[in-house]
Amino acid sequence: MPAGAVIGAQWGDEAKGKVTHFLAREADYTVRFNGGPNAGHTVKDGYGTARLHHIPVGALHPGCVGALAHGVALDLWTLRDELTALRAQGRPEPVLRFSDRLHLILPQHKLREELGGSAQRIGTTRRGIGPCYEDRAARRGLRLADLADEEAVRSSLQLAVQELGACGLQETLSVEDIVRELAELYRQVESRMGDVRAEIATALERGKRVIFEGAQGTLLDLDWGTYPYVTSSSTTVHGVGWGTGIAVTRFDAVLGVAKAYTTRVGEGPFPTEDTAAGGEHLREVGKEYGTTTGRPRRCGWLDLVALRYACRINGFTGLALTKMDVLRGLSEVKLCVAYRTGEGRTDVFPTRTGELMEVEPIYESLPGWKEDLSRAREEDDLPRAVRSLLAAVEGHVGVPVRLVGVGPAEEEIVTLE
Ligand code: IMP
């Protein structure tokens, strides 16, 4: 797979970090193309648990370059703290590249998110992601390369503070402090900044292996997700071209990552949510608490209507079904195969949020299992009940399952032919 994308097929937190880390053992580059530190990718390896918000997970492998392409919203303070945490674990310094066109998340973005109410209304991660992308679209953002011009930085910040002044908040931000901190942070990344698009394009021409690591998931995509309860970037495979400048004709494989159940953080419709014992099992056994915010995640059953929709949007060539081990011990495993609406049964994922709020899931029930899956590495190691579940998923969505997650550790993964 010279060029492959790993894309979330649900509402984020599908364990893309673990899957990307597994695939990146043989990669030359891992590239983030969308989102910012709202993402929380967790990897467990010999050094301990790494919780990454900015650094591409592949960069934890020596020999794999981690690149942040221009579609990412970059918080230099978070990046600095993340690098410090990796060093404290005794890891080798990751090799990183930063696009000079990266838009920066600045202190005013976090303030604006609170003031504008989206933090509460949508239940955002409060990382300033939305306001950063707003400034980008309004053509008043600051890009990484712009930090070379201190006067331009100062006047851009002064303008932002003046605007906040209208809300009585100008004292909260000191322009001179931010200018000074940014200058210092810039010095730390300057030598690794450049034309990431050109570097990746050249690497692909030379036959290097590149993984594009998606953040969030298809149902949080600004256009294809459950609008307005979405993030502010392009989270699907279409975001790879948008956020890197690499043509989609370059891709050999697009792997969709979905949990064997469903979770969501923040507000918005979630047809298969289970607020009773089933959901409680998934949250506690699956440790479903946000990596970025610590919030308990809403939990429910695998929604094959939504998954089929994600498969169509992204053209997945294969699926990774993660956290299968979490379903162990349940007497039955439910799969949502269609929705019931006022007009009858449908397998179409609705555009209108109000409609999605009202659909009733139609479930198929499969038997559970008691066997421990953590040592399974091939299809034959999986109990019959798990194989039936995989067959049911493939039958409904029409995409083959290639990987199955059977535990949190790096090697706890089953590869299917
Ligand atoms: P924002 O991306 O912080 O603007 O938040 C918008 C919505 O996306 C909220 O519902 C968040 O909880 C959700 N969200 C953003 N990033 C992630 C993620 O990495 N995993 C899961 N949900 C996320």
Strand and helix map with partners:
Layout lengths: L2 E6 L7 H8 L5 E4 L8 E5 L2 E5 L12 E4 L4 E2 L1 H13 L7 E4 L3 E2 L2 H10 L1 H4 L7 H9 L12 H16 L9 H15 L3 E2 L1 H10 L4 E4 L24 H7 L8 E7 L2 E3 L12 H9 L12 E3 L1 E2 H11 L3 E5 L9 E10 L2 E3 L6 H6 L1 E8 L16 H14 L3 E5 L7 E3 L2
Helix pairs in contact: 3-5, 6-7
This protein binds inosinic acid.
Inosinic acid binds next to helix 5.
Give a structural overview.
There is one protein chain. The protein has 417 residues and is of the alpha/beta class. It folds into 3 domains: 3-98 and 194-254, Adenylosuccinate Synthetase, Chain A, domain 1 (3-Layer(aba) Sandwich); 103-189, Orthogonal Bundle (Adenylosuccinate Synthetase, subunit A, domain 2); 259-415, Adenylosuccinate Synthetase, Chain A, domain 3. 32% of the residues lie in helices and 21% in strands. The protein has 13 helices and 20 strands. It has helices at 16-23, 76-88, 107-116, 118-121, 129-137, 150-165, 175-189, 196-205, 238-244, 277-285, 304-314, 353-358, 384-397; strands at 3-8, 29-32, 41-45, 48-52, 65-68, 73-74, 96-99, 103-104, 193-194, 210-213, 253-259, 262-264, 298-300, 302-303, 318-322, 332-341, 344-346, 360-367, 401-405, 413-415. The strands form 5 sheets. Strands 9-7-5-2-10-1-11-15-19-20 form a 10-stranded mixed sheet, sandwiched between helices. Strands 14, 16, 17 and 18 form a 4-stranded mixed sheet that branches. Helix 3 (107-116) crosses helix 5 (129-137) and helix 6 (150-165) crosses helix 7 (175-189). The longest helix is centred in the middle third of the chain and has 16 residues, at 150-165. It is globular, with a radius of gyration of 21 Å. It starts with a strand and ends with a strand. The model has no long low-confidence stretch (mean pLDDT 95). The chain binds inosinic acid. Inosinic acid binds next to helix 5.
